[in-house]
Amino acid sequence: MATSISEVTRAVEALLANPPPVEDRKDGEAEHLFDAMERLRVTLEKPEQTVNRIIFSCRTLPIIKIAQGMGIFDAFADVGLNHPLTLGQLDEQTKGDRTMLTRILRLLITEKVITKSNDEYTLAPFAYQFRNDTVSGEVVKHFHAITAIQSPNYLKARDYMSPDDAFDAPHQFANNTKNHYFHWLADDEERQRPFNATMSLPRHDDHNQWFDIYPVRERLNDESHVFVDLGGGSGHDIARLKTKFPDLPGRLVLQDLPAVVRGVSLPNGIEINPHNMFDPQPIKDARAYYMRTVLHDWPDKQALEVLSRVREAMGKDSILLINENVLSESGADDTPVVAHTDFTMMLNFSSRERTESEWIELLQKADLKLIKVWRPRVTIKSRALFEAMRVD
Ligand SMILES: C[S@@+](CC[C@H](N)C(=O)[O-])C[C@H]1O[C@@H](n2cnc3c(N)ncnc32)[C@H](O)[C@@H]1O
């Protein structure tokens, strides 16, 4: 067993020279190693090294955005995977001057995005995703680091009290706007498009879809049944439902704000209904009103308003399905993604992720009766489908 630093280094170098293909890895094995390596790093680093790493980490995203804007990733993509480029070739194909290019390349090397050998630069395979015409490239554009960077000033001015007003969040403070985050997105196609792309990205639990655990055929079994995907974005989720159950009877309807559903094209059989969920619900007595990661964007006050609009439209056989992120009750058992999503909810919306008991409490406040909490078969603790009906 490797117990000295040099032995561990040799073992890691051997793994790097011959990494096992993804399909040969056991479930969770790589994640376990990452966790151990991160803990090892913090243990072995001198305190000033750890502090420097933390301080500089907030610059990684802006550096990637600059490189993306200059066309550095596009230049590598144009010549193909693993094809090296010289400084002169990169200079010819990118925006900006050579001083800027050299400076950004130096930073990208320290970020392990690029390697340099024999005066040639090679892009790491993962970084091809940052080129301009990819969905993951759009995701980089979607993340507005300025809101996180300004949040200490926002919170200091409010004595570190949790924000609860969606119109007075760190987002308004940092971006100098009075607009709610979603209206601010809709005001500019360059913001709305990357947001939609981000929402359409596969998620870590996509192999565990809600309709794989929920009795869809049992619940949606009549021509009169309507399934409404409220706040469904560009329809990726409802499209997956249609693909899985192409012959489901009844109607499938996608609802979202007009700016979001404008121009969206979906498989035959899915209707598009532009709708603001704070207005009265136009589809009454649907069999199912479904919301995936919609309510987590709203503090309780507005989440309850949305639930009231749904409740008013629900008939005695209507079902409400809330597919949501769920925080651990202990506060010590969350993945970084879930903990950061909670922070993002605060930054953009003054909202938060909720624990299972907080979701149930919200349903009770909205006068809705919980039928069942559906959990994915493989234990993904951070996700649940709450099924509820009207209390009459
Ligand atoms: C976090 S996204 C989730 C999108 C989709 N359900 C999914 O899981 O990928 C929240 C969605 O709520 C929509 N939304 C926000 N405000 C809305 C409103 N007032 N009426 C309808 N939809 C709204 C947004 O446009 C966005 O598509």
Structure report:
With 392 residues, the chain is an alpha/beta fold. The chain is built from 19 helices and eleven strands. Strands 4, 5, 6, 7, 8, 9, 10 and 11 form an eight-stranded mixed β-sheet that branches. The radius of gyration is 24 Å and the shape is globular. The protein starts with a helix and ends with a strand. S-adenosylmethionine binds at residues 182, 199, 231-233, 237, 256-257, 260, 276-278, 292-294, 297. This is O-methyltransferase C-terminal domain-containing protein.
Present the secondary structure layout.
Blueprint: H1 5-17, H2 29-44, H3 47-57, H4 60-70, H5 72-79, E1 85-86, H6 87-93, H7 98-110, E2 114-117, E3 120-123, H8 135-142, H9 145-157, H10 170-175, H11 181-186, H12 189-200, H13 210-213, H14 216-219, E4 226-230, H15 236-244, E5 251-256, H16 258-261, E6 270-274, E7 288-292, H17 300-313, E8 319-327, H18 336-349, E9 354-355, H19 356-365, E10 368-374, E11 383-390
Parallel strand pairs: 4-5, 4-7, 5-6, 7-8, 8-9
Antiparallel strand pairs: 1-3, 2-3, 8-11, 10-11
Helix pairs in contact: 4-7, 8-12
The protein binds S-adenosylmethionine (SAM).
